[in-house]
Amino acid sequence: MSPSSATVWKTLCPFWGEEYQVYLSPSFHAVAFYVMDEDALSRDDVIGKVCLTRDILAAHPKGFSGWAHLAEVDPDEEVQGEIHLRLEVVRGTQACLLRCSVLEARDLAPKDRNGASDPFVRVRYNGRTQETSVVKKSCYPRWNETFEFELKEGAAEALCVEAWDWDLVSRNDFLGKVVVNVQRLWAAQQEEGWFRLQPDQSKSRREEGNLGSLQLEVRLRDETVLPSSCYQPLVQLLCREVKLGVQGPGQLIPLIEEMTSTECRQNVATNLLKLFLGQGLAKDFLDLLFQLELGRTSEANTLFRSNSLASKSMESFLKVAGMRYLHGVLGPIINKVFEEKKYVELDPSKVEVKDVGCSGLHRPQTEAEVLEQSAQTLRAHLGALLSALSRSVRACPAVVRATFRQLFRRVRERFPGAQHENLPFIAVTSFLCLRFFSPAIMAPKLFHLRERHADARTSRTLLLLAKAVQNVGNMDMQTSRAKEAWMEPLQPTVRQGVAQLKDFITKLVDIEEKEELDLQRALSLQAPPVKEGPLFIHRTKGKGPLMSSSFKKLHFSLTTEALSFAKTPSSKSVNELNQWLSALRKVSINNSGLLGSYHPGIFRGDKWSCCHQKDKTDLGCDKTRSRVTLQEWNDPLDHDLEAQLIYQHLLGLEAALREKHQELSAGAGAGSVPTGPGEAPEDPLAQLLQVLHDLREAHASSPAGSPPAEPTCLLPLQT
Questions:
Q1: Is a pLDDT exceeding 50 seen at residue 573?
Q2: Is residue 206 in a domain?
Q3: For 605-659, what is the HEC assignment?
Q4: How far apart are CA 297 and CA 677, in angstroms?
Q5: Does residue 544 sit within a domain?
Q6: What would the mean pLDDT of 257-261 be, rounded to a whole number?
């Protein structure tokens, strides 16, 4: 997986400020960061790279932070993959032989434009060189060729096995090498296995620092995820808290919020939200947070304005549950702004007439004309956005609608009266507009609306549009208008937008709950189908002639984003792609019959496209991995991983939680916190401490990496 940042144009000192979270294989060796120079007509040039090994990241448990020198990128060092070798010492009557069998290789670097390579292997020992045949267009070649070399006892020379990509016109490309210690092989007599290909580091390097430096913040989290049953007590305890709500005796959620630092609150909110989303309790969890914040809020104008757990959780909720909805509403408007590239400015102190050009053949535009034309452009964009939003009531995901309805209801109950008439609407817009739509307008790349950041001119248009949306979201309050008087030309559209937005929210929160299931299945923004048609499901396992009643006929549709099936083409029952992949991954983790290898290609004609083997029943050329990846997709609802991350966070708070329990129990005359398996504490805080104790013991007794536990490396990084 290779995420890429936006392009910063025409500068030698770029700033990105982008964050990524990458899921790595537990066996990864290093992480490389490449700085590229983008070219519109030719291939992008590589300026340099920073490579952080696993040892470097492990030596910085709190994260690696600082400037790192860019190093020159040598094609001979850009290697990947493994090679399968069988090595043995054969003792004869006349002499000893070193026998090297080159069996196969996997995951080789693609060096050719067709996305593959034409690999062959060169074996060198004691001045002699032998080569395998060339396997065309494959990154998973098989050779099954054996070479022999005369071996003298006590010889110190190493055996070198090199993989190369054959090229007809240009020079061959280096794919990696393995150096074998022959003296060690003398003692073992035979060795067979997969060897990781190493780069060729024999060349002299340029002095570091000549290519510039890259500032990074990288933290490696190496998590061992236990079987689901181990996390059930923690999940059940937290779910019970949410189901009981503010009437419950435990109050673990507010205690977690109180003890969580501001820096960690966003991560904790996201983990809790995903955990409860997977349990079907996202709305209940957010409702509990709404009630807690409303209970401690006395001033209506400060409601949901802080970085509380409620605000952070709601942000995460909208990004997880409402991203496709956001794309459907905002996508066309954002694309139009990028395509038009109009000069837009409302602040007279920032108007630059020279950037506008000429409105006619002879006369440049005046400042007043620039301001009026800019106002017209922004009014058009804002009007289009508000119209799209007004039409999107039924496109809004059901769980989002239900959550907003509950928020609207709670705020109206807490602040009744005519003077707070707009407050329930402002509570909804504080999340929908101020924390979701406006940030997406200002930085569309971060919300996957565009592949690149906007240039300076487009960024200014987006910023002004986002400000206008914020004014609409604030219900056109005088305080927001007074800050920037030059936004006044947009006020007629803003006032009209406030009325549209209130009407939209009224419809959004008034939809009956009995309609939720049907509306959840509606997909107005469906991607074009890749394949669709009838789907026959065999109902029975009986023998004999197949009758028509043995099959159930459904209509299915496969798109790049979803797989759906229904009784007729007109009816829809959608299962999101990530839900399918999530289910498949979870089913396969504990599959005792899981194959150890598979073919990443297809059997076309008379051979596999990946390794060119002609046996259709061949076991496979690439090892099977338990994680499912699709480009940059990762399972957004990995419940066990979320539970593990919550456990790790609570483990850091354990001392404070234990102190809090002792403080509370001292007043009630309770005894000490139970730590043995035979004791059953009744109060939730004591139960939580017991759960943490049991999970710590489970981790201590579980060997890392052994099934069904699954190590997961998370790499949050910032450039």
A1: no
A2: no
A3: CCEECCCCCCCCCCCCCEECCCCCCECCECCCCCHHHHHHHHHHHHHHCHHHHHH
A4: 41
A5: no
A6: 89
Task: Say yes or no: 119 and 41 in one domain.
Answer: no
Is the same domain home to 120 and 227?
no
Q: CA–CA separation, 423 vs 418, rounded Å?
A: 10
**What are the tens digits of pLDDT across the range 438-456?**
999 999 988 889 877 888 8
Beta partners for 102? 85, 145
Beta-carbon count within 10 A of 531 CB? 8
Q: What is the CATH number of the domain that holds 472?
A: 1.10.506.10
Task: Decide if 237 is inside a domain.
Answer: yes
**Cis amide prior to 708 (ω within 30 degrees):** yes
What is the C-alpha to C-alpha distance for residues 375 and 345, in angstroms, rounded to an integer?
Answer: 8
606-662 confidence digits (pLDDT tens)? 888 888 888 888 888 877 765 544 333 445 567 788 899 999 999 999 999 998 888
One-letter identity of residue 461: T
Reference 99, options 167, 180, 13; nearest CA is 180
pLDDT value at residue 194: 92
Flag whether pLDDT at 684 surpasses 70: yes
Residues 362-396 pLDDT 10s: 567 788 888 999 999 999 999 999 999 999 998 99
Task: Tally the domains of the chain.
Answer: 5
**pLDDT at site 305:** 73
Neighbours of 602 (CB within 10 A): 8
Same domain, yes or no, for 281 and 429?
no
- Does the pTM surpass 0.90? The reply is no
End-to-end CA distance of the chain: 17
Q: Are residues 579 and 607 in the same domain?
A: yes
Q: Are 179 and 158 in contact (CB under 8 A)?
A: yes
Lowest mean pLDDT among 9-13, 46-50, 111-115, 367-371: 111-115
Same domain membership, residue 182 and residue 84: yes
Closest CA to 163 of 113, 114, 200: 200
Complete DSSP assignment for 479-512 = HHHHH-GGGGGGHHHHHHHHHHHHHHHHHHHHS-
β pairing state of 142-151 and 96-106: antiparallel
Residues 642 and 696 reside in one and the same domain: yes
Q: For residues 216 and 581, which has the higher predicted lDDT (pLDDT)?
A: 216
User: Which among 596, 623, 650 is the end of a domain?
Assistant: 623
Q: Which residue range is the domain that position 186 belongs to?
A: 77-196
In terms of domains, do 96 and 60 share one?
Answer: no
Any long-range contacts for 54-61 (C-beta under 8 Å, 24+ apart)?
54/28, 54/29, 54/30, 54/220, 57/31, 57/218, 57/219, 57/220, 57/715, 58/220, 58/222, 60/219
Secondary structure of 47-107 as H, E, C letters = EEEEEEEHHHHHCCCCCEEEEEECECCCHHHCCCCEEEEEEEEEECCCCEEEEEEEEEEEC
Structure tokens at 529: 């189908």
Determine, yes or no, domain membership for 148. Answer: yes
* pLDDT for 279: 84
CATH number of the domain bearing residue 88:
2.60.40.150
Asked if 398 and 453 sit in the same domain, the reply is yes
Q: What is the mean pLDDT of residues 397-412?
A: 91
For residue 598, give Cα distances in angstroms to 601, 603, 621, 622. Answer: 9, 12, 6, 6
Supply the pLDDT for residue 675: 44
Average model confidence (pLDDT) for the chain? Answer: 80
